[in-house]
Design goal:
This protein has 198 residues and is mainly alpha-helical. It has 10 helices and 2 strands.
């Protein structure tokens, strides 16, 4: 979904249930039916209505009220059901014209397949669909990670749902790194990926 805040708020709110449960329930006068609806939601939005808030060379022309109204089109409960929110700043021309760096796709793909296999060998399902009881069983952080989570709960006012999503995300980050134990760096990275949802 591109330009996420431009969608009708009621439409976005309807996505909460399938994002949470992987099912959609439709009820009519004499009939109710449930359909499977597990999907991956990828969405994008500008930082403000004009799109230039924080741009290195162009000035934003939005008022603070316009920016607030734009961002509050997405409710807290809707945002709570998203795992990752990453801010992607505008690139300057030097960075845009430079040769790309980083790993090639085949290397990244293999690391993902390895992490997927580890998760399935451990719990017979992906980390993203673990239940609360399964999170307690398979996503236990070490002491340093637990202390970091405690601080994050206090400072960021994470909900129980957000807390569990951070743990599942940290479990995945640890799996990608080839680590059996969820440690503080894994939790810190998972928290950073949720900072944009606050």
């Amino acid at each position: 979904m591109d330009e996420l805040p431009e969608f009708d708020r009621k439409v976005l709110e309807v996505l909460r249930e399938p994002l949470e449960t992987g099912e959609v329930h439709i009820s009519r006068a004499n009939h109710a039916v449930t359909y499977p609806a597990r999907f991956q939601l990828i969405a994008a939005m500008n930082p403000c209505p004009c799109g230039y808030l924080g741009h290195p060379t162009r000035a934003c022309r939005c008022t603070p009220d316009q920016i607030t109204r734009y961002r509050t089109k997405l409710s807290g409960p809707f945002l709570d059901r998203l795992d990752i929110a990453i801010e992607v700043p505008a690139l300057n021309e030097h960075t845009l014209l430079a040769a790309p760096d980083g790993e090639d796709t085949a290397t990244v793909r293999q690391r993902i397949l390895n992490a997927w296999a580890v998760a399935h060998a451990r719990q017979h399902k992906p980390n993203g669909v673990l239940t609360t009881a399964e999170i307690d069983q398979w996503c236990t952080p070490d002491e340093a990670a637990r202390a970091l989570l405690h601080t994050a709960l206090q400072k960021l006012n994470l909900s129980a749902r957000s807390y569990h999503r951070v743990l599942k995300l940290a479990r995945t980050i640890a799996d990608l790194a080839g680590c059996d134990v969820i440690s503080a760096p894994h939790v810190a990275e998972a928290i950073q990926y949720r900072r944009g949802l606050g």
